[in-house]
Amino acid sequence: MDINSKNFKSYLDRDNALKKQYNTERAKKQHNKGKLTAYERIALLFDEGSFEEIDAFVTPADNGIEFGKVEKSFGDGVIVGHGKVGGRLVFAYAQDFTIMGGSLGQVHARKIDKIQQMALKMGAPIIGLIDSGGARIQEGIASLNGYALIFSNIIQSSGIIPQISVIMGPAAGGAVYSPALTDWVFMTSHTSYMFVTGPNVVKEVLNEDVSSEDLGGAEIHARKSGVANMIYDDEENTIIALRKFLTYLPSNNVENPPVTVYDGLTADINEKLRDIVPDDPNKAYDVRDVINLIIDKGSFFETSELYAQSIVTGFGRLKGKTIGIIANQPKVLAGVLDIDSSTKGARFIRFCDAFNIPLLTFEDVPGFLPGMDQEHQGIIRHGAKLLYAYAEATVPRITVILRKAYGGAYIVMNSKGLGGDFNFAWPSAEIAVMGPDGAVAILYRRELAEAKDPVSLKKELVRTYREKVANPFIADEKGYIDEVIDPAVTRSKLISAFEALNNKWVKVPSRKHDNMPL
Ligand code: HXC
Predict the structure, then answer these.
(1) Nearest Cα residue to atom 47 of ligand 1
(2) What is the 3-state secondary structure (H, E, C) of 475-510?
(3) Cα of 144 to ligand 1 centre, how many Å?
(4) Residue 49 catalytic?
(5) Cα(first)–Cα(last) distance of the chain, in Å?
(6) CA-based, 20 to 30 A from 67: which of 198, 393, 474, 498?
(7) What kind and span of H or E run contains 184?
């Protein structure tokens, strides 16, 4: 190749023009808002020097619409390409807010469409770094169609490759539905927000003043709406966490999750576990203490930590192998199942099942949350999601009953009848149709009403119920659980149980798709 040829010169000129486009002015604009540029984000995400960009020189389409102005930039406001994260292939797109607010026009959409299709074909995760004002107003219907393509791709890829959205600025209008459809949403506090309609529209339509942060900031979506699964203080920490998160996941649904080298630092037999669950059934404890003593030291990656906190979900490792953990949290609302905790658990289970991640359940649940509020909002419909998700999961499924396992909640939390592969219970387990107070009130209503000292009678009946009915030994003797175990040996029991389930294979009858309650 003659480096003095016209074409080679054009090649160099274009390269220089691209570098000029990403000048310090654009970077300054982002930095002043506490944000990184799209290229800086890409550099943080991928292993050094591994990112290969494609379509860097495409230019926006001319739609013949004469309204506003379309900036004739290179790349049309989005960087797309592939590279390695922890040595494994990952595809990504990063929107550039400095070009027309990262808005999505026809060409911008086509680039994302291309990279999505590639990720699916190659069976590799795709990450969207989102910083966008939504559909590009100047490009009208072409922008809307662009979003339709992107949504459709996400749905086609769902359950085949992990799809993760990272919100690093605004995600407005159509920009919110791509994250909503993907498996996981990461957000950065204070600089990212998501809403279908922004504060200006809220003001116009409802005459309400609301800030972007209050309407759709990271905190709101992590705590209240449940849209954001993980939030971090700044963009760097968000991306560092995302890199770590990827180490738990397989690249696609026909691979097993990666196995890390186990450091041997976790005791297989740990007597501290005998003292975590308080003797008093009304006393709370943090189920994370149980989790952290059982799984490989330091391996717990909690998901949706701030949302529906009466259930804890997250990934961990047992001897280097990824497992998905679902645990009732006695510290919050006594670990009760409500609408939000049911849907949180269900979505987590379905992700694990799609990506061959075995499930481990720790159970201490008094039941479903009673009351008009929950009933009217549809606890029946939403609770059914958790039940459904467990029962349809074909990955290895193990439950350890730590304490309460009452009523419907017993059934739901991966009971034997629902297809639990191994169901263990600690001696502290209380397994029955309902808690002692409710049972005594129903069965002994007349006797209590007529008793001279109803308080003492009730106390005595509750004690007898606990002793005779709500214990794990009846379930053990009848085979409804597989074994009552010493808490100290839980880790070693789980390791051998998961090993025994390594080649679990379930044939699911063919159907177009199931019809889970939504
Ligand atoms: C074209 C846009 C744009 C858009 C922002 N810009 N959004 N250009 N189409 N959707 C441009 C602005 O004109 C501006 O250009 C630059 O991006 C930066 O925007 P600012 O408003 O100055 O920034 P900021 O104050 O940070 O506010 C960001 C914002 C706001 C909150 C995102 O721009 C905004 O509200 N945009 C509209 C959001 C929205 O309603 N989108 C919905 C589109 S409808 P200059 O040249 O001045 O730098 C949609 C439908 C799909 O998406 C529905 C599918 C289900």
Answers:
(1) 100
(2) HHHCCCCCEECCHHHHHHHHHHHHHHCCCCCCCCCC
(3) 14
(4) no
(5) 60
(6) 198
(7) strand 184-188
Q: What is the DSSP letter of 35?
A: -
Q: Which CATH number fits domain 271-435+471-500: 1.20.1050.10, 3.90.226.10, 3.40.920.10, 3.40.50.300?
A: 3.90.226.10
Q: Where are the alpha helices (DSSP H) in 355-405?
A: 372-377, 379-392
CA angle 283, 317, 271 (to 5 degrees): 45
Q: Where are the domains of the chain?
A: 34-246, 271-435+471-500, 436-469
Residue 409 is among the residues annotated as catalytic for this protein: yes
**pLDDT value at residue 26:** 87
* β-bridge partners, 337: 368
From the candidates 228, 409, 429, 470, which is the catalytic residue?
409
Residue 177 Cα: closest atom of ligand 1: 55
Residue 23: is its pLDDT beyond 90? Answer: no
Q: Whose CA is nearest to atom 3 of ligand 1?
A: 133
Judge whether 426 and 401 are in contact, CB under 8 Å: yes
Q: At what angle do helices 339-354 and 379-392 cross, to 10 degrees?
A: 20
The active-site residue, picked from 140, 226, 408, 438, is 408
Return the percentage of the chain with pLDDT > 70, whole number.
100
Closest CA to 413 of 438, 431, 440, 435: 431
Cβ within 8 Å of residue 169, ≥6 positions away:
33, 35, 95, 97, 102, 130, 131, 132, 191, 192
> Which of 98, 103, 138, 215 has most ligand 1 atoms within 8 Å of its beta carbon, as the pocket-test mutant?
103
* Contact between residue 497 and residue 398 where contact means Cβ atoms under 8 Å apart: yes
Q: What is the reported pLDDT for 17? A: 85
Could you read off the pLDDT of 125-141 as tens digits, one per residue?
A: 999 999 999 999 999 99
CA distance 413 to 420: 9
Q: Dihedral (C-alpha) 184, 188, 193, 195: value to the nearest 10 degrees?
A: 10
- What amino acid is encoded at 283 in this protein? K
Nearest CA owner, ligand 1 atom 1: 136
Higher pLDDT: 62 or 178? It is 178
Same topology, domains 34-246 and 271-435+471-500? Answer is: yes
Residue 375 has pLDDT above 80, yes or no: yes
Residue 327 is encoded by which pair of tokens?
Answer: 């645990």
Residues at CB less than 6 angstroms from ligand 1: 100-101, 103, 133-138, 144, 147, 170, 172-174, 177, 198
Which run of H or E residues covers position 188?
A: strand 184-188
Domain 34-246 grouped into CATH 3.30.300.30? no
Reduce the DSSP state of residue 361 to 3 states and report it.
Answer: strand
Return the pLDDT at 53.
97
Burial class (CB in 10 A: 0-12, 13-18, 19+), 306: middle
| pTM, entire model | 0.95
